[in-house]
# Entry
Amino acid sequence: MSGTGFFGDTAPIRYEGPQSANPLAYRHYDRDKLVLGKRMEDHLRAAVCYWHSFVASGLDMFGGATLARPWFAADDMAHARLKADVAFEMFDILGLPFFTFHDRDIAPEGASLAESNRNVREIADVFARKMETRKVRLLWGTANLFSARRYMAGAATNPDPDVFAYAAAQVKNAIDVTHRLGGANYVLWGGREGYETLLNTDLKRELAQLGRFLEMVVEYKHKIGFKGVILIEPKPQEPTKHQYDFDVGNVYGFLAANGLANEVKVNIEVGHAVLAHHAFEHEVSLAAALGILGSVDANRNDYQSGWDTDQFPNNAPELALALHAILKFGGLGAGGFNFDAKIRRQSLEPADLLYGHIGGMDTLARALTAAAAMIEDGALDRFVAERYAGWDRGEGAELLAGRRGLADLAARVERDNLDPQPRSGRQEYLENLVNRYL
Ligand code: XLS
Ligand code: NI
Ligand code: NI
# Structure
């Protein structure tokens, strides 16, 4: 036993293959295995998130904390350091290449924002020292602009410009820290950027405020030379009734309206797609088509509950189509798969944190393998390519290029007595085909 002893004498998790019955081994995640010529680790770029693993206490609407953690004893810097020690011990055990955090996850709030920001920077120094001797890197940092009472009516979209200013000061510090730690991205999730009722809300103003805030973030990123990607994380509701960053399509419209579609991408969360009544692969494919696919928050939702249950992914067939879309797009680039997932409140043991991540990794690895088989076989992509082949040549291509107008088409259809014949979409055939790769 070494370090804090929180995980006892647990050795680093290794790949043991699908036959292994060891619950503390990867059965499918084989980090160096080449998939389509690239290491699994480099495809998935998986991250442990700080908030669910080291901050969440098991509390829900009907009951308090269930998880006992030594660093919950006091909300001070000493306990924040202990929390960091345990976090890095878990990164070592899991051997995943990245982590993510909110400013408020890592350090206690002080008596003023200056003190809070100082606390965050101090723990970031602790991280930086730990990262010197390790391979683990920061996938993204973010600021918590939703928990504190001051943000109850929004951060950037607050009716009070002082709250906007306070949020800006908090975000500046979080970007500085992310930059200093070499973060690959910076995330903005607008948990309170929305409204409860139009009776007290000036929606048009709030949208303008949100646009200006984002513009300031992009300006600042360039000013300090931060090379990471700015990501918006869409979510339709919860905590607010109506959230402005509803889904990928909404975020794209907002970015385009503010001239930021080339500057900002999206971090798509599986459970948020579900809350927006979309399939996850729809959100991924739409973002890829619009050129704003950035990163993924990997989790799953309970389909009956109607809220964001943030469970670890454990259904590979369900994720395979999204992985297929990501592979077709050429991968996530600077993005990755962040486990925005928490163990259940009855999962009391430290090992439960490991089981959640191990299962999540194996699920992603299986989905990746199936998606790679889809790509290698090519039958799915060929079917779609053939279905649209008419647009690649002749009049289809001329049309898209803008060289035909309504009158030209009307003349041709009448002249040739055109009578298009529908062709089967073959959904069942394709569904069966997908099942062969799983
Ligand atoms: C909440 C969001 C949050 C973001 C980071 O639903 O998923 O955890 O990922 O602020
Ligand atoms: Ni998330
Ligand atoms: Ni979420």
